[in-house]
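Hello,

Our lab assistant flagged a job as stuck in the queue for most of the afternoon. It eventually completed. Since we weren't sure the result was trustworthy after the delay, we are filing this so someone can double-check. Below is the sequence as submitted and the structure that was eventually returned. Let us know if re-running is recommended.
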Amino acid sequence: MGARGTWTQAGSKAVANHKPTALNRNAARSAPFAVRVNGCTCTVTCAVTLALLALSAAGCGPRPAGHTQLVASTGPAGATLFRLDADATQIWLLLQADGPLARIGHNHVISTHGLQGSVWLHPQLERSSCALQLPVAAFVVDDPQERAAAGGEYAEPLDADARTGTRAHMLGDRQLDATQFPLVSLQCRRLTAAVDGVTVELQVTLRGRESQLTVPVKWQRVGTVLRASGEFSFRQTAVGLEPYSLLFGALRVSDEIRVRYQLLARAS
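-- returned structure --
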């Protein structure tokens, strides 16, 4: 493994020289935020569930219904089944305050090890698939170590009240509505080989609404271990979310969210 964030090509596979730990300092942002007014901290968050997009590919996932158990899927004939290792799999969402009063807001780092599911890797790459789900309750808001790793405008730690308030708002019925929709489901619609990996057309089911996103994936298989990594941006409005705003939009969440992900799966 070499320097973080670089990739080399090995045959039809992109080989990652990337150590799955901290966030890139220059990772882009988009945004729920916390604001101090008269000594009090008010928190605002936008539905951030798209961290999920970060997945290498996705297969069938049930529409979030009130249970949190991953529903099994059957992969294509001839494919090798890999199951995600949750401890070695992580997604980050970088969020940024926006608007004329953005300077009084806080940017946020949302992270999770909660991604569940299976990947089917087929010798004909375009026939590969996977079934992935993310419990929204697994999101961690502004973990001090993750903020420090992100650096720059994210480095300053936020107090416990601000983190708790932001998370409660994010999971509330006006945002992710975790009670009614405890899972985000991801389904791979098409995989296309690219120069440095694959491009995945990903169907995301969020709050019962289906949207399509295009996700770049760089991957490497070594024996029984499959790794995937990448980053991309998406707009909340593209997945049916309305960016949160206050004061008639003077302080708001940016429509764009930056996602980074690192996945590790083992042959089953």
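-- support follow-up --
The delay was a queue issue, not a problem with the job. The result is valid. The mean pLDDT is 76. The chain has one domain: 7-267.
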